[in-house]
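Class prep. Sample record?

___
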Amino acid sequence: MSANNDSIQKTLFVAILLCLVCSVIVAGAAVGLRDQQNLNKANDKRIAVLQAADLYEAGKPVAEQFKSKITTRIVNIEAGRFATDAELQEIKDAGLSVDNFDQKKSSKMPELSAALKPENDPASIKRKEKFAAIYIVKNGDAIEKVILPVHGYGLWSTLYGFIALQGDMDTVVGLGFYSHAETPGLGGEVDNPKWKSLWVGKELYDDQGDVAIKVVKGGAEAGNPYQVDGLSGATLTSRGVNNLVRFWVGDRGFGNLLTKLKEQGA
């Protein structure tokens, strides 16, 4: 009986020791790879920005492309302007980086965001951040393109992406998402290049300056500059994309900023 107990104790000891060793290895790998994981996430966002603006060149270093083509600016969303030095310091005081601003994280911080009432939250984002990083492509002193971060809820997940506009602050250059968990083959078709191409050349605002862009179930009218075909079999994801785009280019999103940038370029 004693021999059996010794055998069981040894087996348990070996099992526990093996678990501890594996835990140390996994933890060490996680820590060791953290910098590379963060770099990969940053590059995923950079690629999404470049692709939305139709500037991405496959095979070339992403960071170099981004640095040479894109200017990043932090904006005060509500005020519709670039952030002041005091506001940039406010971001730093909250523990966030200005150079690599984490808008998703800021939306969860009470000091840098505000809760939205349901009637003011068609994109179902719950809280709207005070600041955002936008991306500008310049031709000399003139703004050639502007790329805006957008997000909102689809069917199963929050979609995070970018919409790029021409310098008129109205005509769409491209739309793309870098993070979501929509159903492959259905809502996941937001990643389909064919569907994304339908956004190119569409206009955000009508002649009165009201948001007119719309994702249409059953198909857009031929020649309609404001309508985009909905995703087949993905009504709720299509509705989510419609709501998030309209929200972020509207008055509660970047609408005020786009108006001011258009006036400056006029």
